[in-house]
Design brief:
Blueprint: H1 3-10, E1 19-21, E2 24-26, E3 33-37, E4 44-49, H2 53-68, H3 77-93, H4 95-106, H5 110-132, E5 138-139, E6 146-154, E7 157-161, H6 167-180, E8 184-188, H7 195-207, E9 214-216, H8 221-230, E10 236-240, H9 243-255, E11 260-264, E12 270-273, H10 280-292, E13 304-308, H11 312-325, H12 344-359, E14 363-366, E15 370-371, E16 379-380, E17 383-386, H13 393-396, E18 403-409, H14 412-419, E19 427-431, H15 435-444, E20 449-452, E21 485-493
Parallel strand pairs: 7-8, 7-10, 8-9, 10-11, 12-13, 12-19, 13-18, 17-18, 19-20
Antiparallel strand pairs: 1-2, 3-4, 5-6, 6-21, 14-17, 15-16
Helix pairs in contact: 1-4, 2-8, 3-5, 3-7, 4-5, 5-6, 10-11
The structure holds nicotinamide-adenine-dinucleotide.
Nicotinamide-adenine-dinucleotide binds at residues 161-165, 170, 188, 190-191, 221-222, 225-226, 229, 240-242, 245, 248, 264-267, 299, 398, 400, 426, 464, 466, 471.
Length: 494
């Protein structure tokens, strides 16, 4: 990855994009398009098809037809594996192009997008491709006069809705296991970040995914997303996004065909630093990256920092120093450590959180303001708000921006109580040298993942999912593929 290659890619015009249905780019029922703005400079970037319920119906029909005739669903797992491995190779070969395209509409710093978006998408397709011919059914322990076979049957048509942060990474966490398991998929990306996933659909066709098996319908959540989730012919929904939309999906399911909904939602994850942390300087550095990278637009961001009283002042000073040290700027500049906030409404919402936190008595230690306004882009200074109380809005609500809430605690009991004092349960972190305490905290924090003496690391081998109002179900790991199968029993009289 070098700056001149990035600059050459960013200079390319982006042609208007249609939906990808039944193996082809299509304009859709009305031919209407919406304008996508680039968070890098606030300028018009691309025109994307504005989908309608009829477009969703067309995509669902294509998916159902492809599923029923077995062109993919009944292909030998080794055949699907071959195609998906080819797709992984194509993604890897075009990784920089995909990463730059994605950054142009979502604003993530390129160093992160290249690895966490493009290369991670390739790795995800490879992982589930490799898995699919190693999953066996079962023979039940019945009496000898019958044979009970338990099959893994693909569920049918999978509806997937994903957000604008990490569209490629999150999208592939859903598309790859769904396709590997033999399903057909209709995907709705975020209206403001569809470009890289539309490209994946083209690459999937090039790799040999048959027509109709993987479809993308672009457009708004309230029209395209709602129509998909209300469809009587979609068998399961897999979703990543806000709790508000997650609730709606459950309603749509109840109003339609009771489809199962797997929800990966928001968080307000506690990152707890005890005075006996093995290396407080390291804790401050990693904790700063754990909230501020990608401008805080990371679902597992450690957005609530809980610090033991005796080190509180020094630690707040240290993490504020790190916050001020980040180079925020053009996400396609290799020197930028933090890129843009995704959109103007998101930026305004972040600033409003800071204003409200101050009104509620929190102390702004650094940041809290829009920066680089002259670029026309959406940038915010990494922000540290100290002395945030349990009852404060900033303690309880997800910002999804570069705003850290810091709260002191006295002892382990209070740390654990504060950690669990929100409705969320996505992630957490504990910094301590005390092994017993580390285990107690891992057991006690209500979250899908708890980091110990680090924050934010993970790979494909471990599941990611929330508890409580952070959702249900998991992406990643072999566990994630289970939801894309129904268990089907054959009961055979011998
Ligand atoms: P969002 O819920 O507004 O949008 C997510 C997707 O849902 C978009 O594609 C959107 O168009 C669609 N949508 C919106 N309204 C809809 C409706 N009525 N019916 C159907 N679909 C609809 O969320 P966002 O702002 O794009 O994403 C940020 C949120 O995602 C944050 O809360 C973040 O924590 C969460 N997130 C969670 C994870 C995780 O793994 N748990 C990962 C990334 C992001």
């Amino acid at each position: 990855m070098d700056q001149s290659s990035i600059d050459a890619l960013r200079a390319q015009d982006i042609a208007p994009r249609g939906h990808f249905i039944n193996g082809h780019s299509q304009d859709g029922e009305t031919g209407a398009r919406h304008q996508v703005l680039s968070p890098i400079n606030g300028q018009p970037l691309a025109l994307i098809a504005e989908g309608t319920p009829a477009d969703v119906d067309m995509a669902v029909r294509a998916a159902r037809d492809s599923f029923v005739d077995g062109r993919w669903s009944r292909m030998a797992p080794a055949g699907r594996k071959k195609v998906l491995l080819k797709l992984a190779d194509l993604i890897e070969a075009r990784a920089l192009e995909l990463a730059v395209l994605g950054v142009r509409d979502n604003g993530t710093e390129i160093t992160m997008a290249y690895k966490a978006e493009a290369l991670s998408a390739a790795a995800t397709f490879r992982y589930y491709a490799e898995a699919i011919d190693k999953i066996y059914g079962q023979i039940a322990p019945t009496s000898g006069d019958v044979l009970g076979l338990v099959h893994h049957a693909p569920v049918g048509v999978v509806g997937a809705i994903v957000p604008w942060n990490f569209p490629l990474m999150i999208g592939s966490w859903k598309i790859a296991p769904a396709l590997a398991a033999g399903n057909s998929v209709v995907l709705k990306p975020a209206e403001s970040a569809s470009l890289s996933l539309l490209k994946i659909a083209e690459l999937a066709a090039e790799a040999g995914v048959p027509d109709g098996v993987f479809n993308v319908v672009t457009g708004s959540g309230s029209v395209v997303g709602e129509a998909l989730a209300l469809s009587m012919d979609v068998d399961i929904m897999v979703f990543t996004g806000s709790g508000t939309t997650g609730r709606r999906l459950l309603e749509y399911s109840a109003r339609s065909n009771l489809k199962r909904c797997y929800l990966e939602l928001g968080g307000k994850s506690p990152n707890i630093v005890f005075a006996d942390a093995p290396d407080l300087a390291e804790a401050a550095k990693v904790s700063a990256a754990g909230i501020f990278r990608n401008s805080g637009q990371v679902c597992v961001a450690g957005s609530r920092l809980l610090v033991q009283q005796e080190i509180y002042e020094d630690f707040v000073t240290e993490i504020s120093r790190h916050a001020e040290g980040f180079r925020v700027g053009d996400p396609l500049d290799l020197n930028s450590q933090i890129g843009a906030v995704h959109s103007l409404p998101e930026l305004q919402a972040n600033l409003d959180f800071v204003t409200k936190a101050e009104a509620e008595g929190a102390e702004r230690r650094t940041g809290g303001n829009r920066i680089l306004t002259e670029t026309g882009g959406y940038y915010m200074a990494p922000t540290v708000m100290a002395n945030v109380k349990e009852t404060d809005t900033l303690f309880q609500n997800e910002v999804f921006g570069p705003v850290l809430a810091v709260t002191p605690f006295a002892d382990e009991d209070e740390a654990l109580r504060l950690a669990n004092a929100t409705v969320y349960g996505l992630a957490g972190g504990v910094w301590t040298s005390n092994l017993s305490r580390a285990h107690r905290m891992v057991a006690g924090i209500r979250a899908g993942v708890v980091h110990v003496n680090t924050y934010g690391g993970a790979d494909l081998t471990v599941p990611l999912g929330g508890v409580r109002q952070s959702g249900n179900g998991h992406d990643k790991s072999l566990h994630a593929i289970e939801k894309y199968f129904d268990l089907k029993t054959a009961w055979i009289k011998l």
